[in-house]
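Thread: "does anyone have the structure for this chain?"

Original post by V.I.:
We have the sequence but no experimental structure in hand. Need at least a predicted one for the grant figures.
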Amino acid sequence: MNVNVIPRLDTSINTTGCCAKFVPEGWDGAEVHFRDKPFVRALTRSVMHIPLNMDKVFTRVLSKLEGGAAMAPDGFVVLSRDLSPWSGEHLFSISTPVQGEEVTTLTGDFVTKVFEGPYSEARKWHDALRAISAAHGKPEGRAYFYYTTCPKCAKAYGANFVVGFAEV
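Reply from O.Q.:
Generated one for you, tokens below.
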């Protein structure tokens, strides 16, 4: 069992200069095991699950990660979840602590599910992750989403892939 490792990210195709094109092979149904995996934790404000300040928060955190070379070398991922209709939590994988940001750890076992489609499908995706958790005997398991590209890049590549992490 590999610990604190995510499936391989293929970043070889990047025609936008922003996000690499997501290659979903190897991601659907993957088992991911986190044991005290370090992350920077950042919160965003939302209105009925629609983020208001995501650009500002992501820009701030990513600039600190890139400047300090703290991005996790074994595959960088941002795991997101809604804490309420009014706030979201985002966990940025790191290799070293980042000054001025909240650092936390994540422990848990997860099964991934790849989704493709518009963000308006997120409720269905969340329900699917809850079903995976329940099928593994963990009906209250946490559900995180890895948004593989920003909306502009998803449009440019013609596909919006989102990877769900269902706690099992």
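V.I.: this helps a lot. The chain has a mean pLDDT of 93.
O.Q.: and The first helix runs from residue 54 to 67.
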